[in-house]
Amino acid sequence: MTAYDDLMEFERDTQALGQVSGRLGWDQETMMPRGAAGQRAEEMAALSSVLHARRTDPKVGDWLAAIDDSTLDAVGQANMRHIRRGYTRTMKIPARLAAEQAKLHSMAQGIWAKARADEDFAGFAPTLKQVLALKREEAAALADGGDLYDALLDDYEPGAKASELEAMFGALRPRLVALRERVLGAEHQPAALEAKFDEALQLELTRKLAVTFGYDMNHGRIDKAVHPFSSGSGHDVRITTRTSPYDPFNCFYSTIHETGHGCYEQNIDDAYLLTPLGNGVSMGVHESQSRIYENQIGRGQAFTGWLFGQMREVFGDFGVADAEAFYATVNRVNSGYIRTEADEVHYNLHVLLRFDLERAMIAGDLDVDDLPDAWNERFVADFGVAVDKPSNGCLQDVHWSVGLFGYFPTYSLGNVYAGCLNKAMRDALPDLDAGLATGNTAPATSWLRENVQQYGGLYRPKELIEKACGFVPSEAPLLDYLEAKFGGIYGV
Questions:
Q1: Between the chain's N and C termini, which has fewer beta carbons within 10 Å?
Q2: Domains parsed from the chain with CATH numbers
Q3: 258 in catalytic set
Q4: What is the spatial distance between Cα 119 and Cα 391, in angstroms, rounded to a whole number?
Q5: How far apart, in Å, do the first and last CA atoms of the chain sit?
Q6: Per-residue pLDDT band at 221 (split at 50, 70, 90)
Q7: Helix, strand or coil, per DSSP, at residue 363
C-alpha cells in the first residue's frame, strides 16, 4: 500500500468515530434521560480525546510528508486538502483543551436549556464565561497572531473572512430595512392562523413533507427536539423538528429546512462515504440547501398551493379561505423575537445581530454580563420591539452554549448562496412551478443534487456555488427575489 492508501484507511476509522460522536450528540438532544447528562459529558470528553489523539497522531504527519499531492487525481487532491488543513488546525489545539471543551460543552447545553426554561440568564452566565474563555484560547492557538474571529469562522466556512462578510452583510442591510418598512406599512396585512392544530397530525404531515422533498427514511429518521437540527452523513442522516399547537408552520418549515440539510448529506456520492469528502463542504453551502428547500421552494406560491390542499385534508377547514390567502399567510411578515421562526425579510437581521455580538465577545469588547443589554438595545434598533424575556433574547439559541462561535454568519451566507442557486435553477428549469403546484419537488431537488449535493467536499465552498450558478455569488439575487416576492404579496 502507498502512503496515501494507508492514510485513507486510517482516516476512514477516524471519520467513523466522528460519526459515533455525532450520534451521541443526537441522542442527547432527543432521547437521553435527563439524569444521564453528567455521564454523557464524560463519554463525550473521552471520545473527543480519542479523536484528538488520532487527528494528531505522528503517523498522519509522516504520511502527509510522504505524499506528493500532484501525483493524485482530483478526488485524491481534495482529500489531501481537507486532511492537511484539519491536521494543521488540530495540531495547534492542545489535547487538554479539546477534552476540556468537549466536557464543558456537553454540560453547558443542559445548563443553557434549564436557564432558558427558567428565564434565568444569570444562571447561565458563569458557564458562558467558561465557554467563551476556552473559545478565545482556541482561537488564539489557531490564529497565529491573526484575527481571532477569522480563526473560528474558518471551522465552518473555510477561507471566509469576517471583513468580507461584513461588507456583504452591509450591502444586505439597507435594502432589507427598506423592504421591511414598506411591507409593514402596507395597507394589506395577511391574517395569521388562529386555529388549533393537533400535534400528532402535524407530525404525520411533516413526515410526508420530508419524503416529498426527497428525504430517504430508510437512511434517516425524524424526532422531536427543543431546537431542530440534523445529524450524520452518508447512510445514517437524522433530522429533528418541533411542534406548536397554534403554529403548524413551525413544524412543517422546520422539517423542510432540516430536510434540506439531510438530503445534502444523503445525496453525496457514495464513493466519498467515510472520507473527508463525505460531508457537506461548509456550513454556508449546507445552509443554502436548507434555505432554498424551505423558502424559495417550500414557501413559493406554487408549492404552498399544494400544501394548502394537504392541510385541508388533514385538519379540515382551518380558517384560510383559499390557496392565495394561504400563500400570503405562510409568508406573513412580522417583527418576531425568534430567529428560527423569522420570515425571510427579517431573518438576516437576526443573524447580523448575532454576528456582531459574538465578534465583540471574541475580541474582548463585550463582556458576558453585558450581553443581555447589548442584545436588547440592538434588537430595539433593528426590529422596533423590546425583548420581553431572555428566552426571546440572548438565551434563545443553543449555539454559544456548545461553543459554536463563528457559526452564525454562515446562516446569512447560506441565504445569499440560496438566492444565487434559485436564480440559476429557475433559469435552467423555466417550468419548475408547474410540478411544484402538484407537490412534485423532484425537478428542483434533482437539480440541486446534480449541481451541489453530490460533490460533498470535492470543491471549495465558493468555487462550488460559482460552478453551480455560472456566476460569482453576491447578495443581489437574494435581494431581488425578496423584493419581488414580498412586493407582490403586500402590493408595495
A1: N
A2: 3-146 (no CATH), 162-490 (1.10.1370.30)
A3: yes
A4: 6
A5: 66
A6: very high
A7: helix
